[in-house]
Amino acid sequence: xxxxxxxxKLETIRALLAKAEDPRTPESEAExxxxxAFEMMAKYGVEQAMLNDANPASDAPTDRxxxxxxxxxxxxxxxxxxxxxxxxxxxxxxxxxGSGPARRVHIFGYxxxxxxxxLLYTSLxxxxxxxxxxxxxxxGQGVRAWRRSWLLGFISxxxxxxxxxxxxxxxxxxxxxxxTGRSAALVLADRKAVVSRSYQQAYPRARKGGTTTMTGNGxxxxxxxxxxxxxxxxRIGRTTAxxxxx
Length: 246
Fold this sequence. Notes:
Number of strands: 4
Oligomer: single chain
Distance between the termini: 29 Å
Radius of gyration: 18 Å
Largest sheet: 4 strands, antiparallel
């Protein structure tokens, strides 16, 4: 593997996603572009981990605090948490940002994985918001409850899709070794251990969140929208998703 290929691969991913997001692209072609971009994003994560094993300075573990604004701040927390965990990162919800409705999260991971989290979260948040805006709440349903259940369905499905792609990329790399002779499985396990250790040192008393409950009936519609979502993104940095600080 060569580090010079990484930027070119990211540009290819961005080009595929741009094609998928273009309303002039036929749906069959858009779906193929999304699928290919999704697969390439997962493979890119494994490749960066393998390269880092031979050159540790190329991709150091780090952390970022992010403010997630309203509307639906808690659902945004759930979305970025599913993405972060699928991509080998750890996230803790720190609660409200001051007295307002915005929420704060703290994410731990390697720099390349945090970049992937940002890319995916920014893109999926836009898709989630636009998808929800296009929905008509069925008669007789509580508007907020139905919309929240739609969001939970969307988040569940896209989270599953990301996890599936990550597992596929790891399985495909199972027989590969780094320049140091270590297997991909061992490299990825060690990275996970480093991230978990950093998280536990920062928050030794952190507990798992409770069970999510909902009262609306929009979960199935949101789940189906998540099946069609473009899993990837071409935007990074400060967006309507909130402020990102190192």
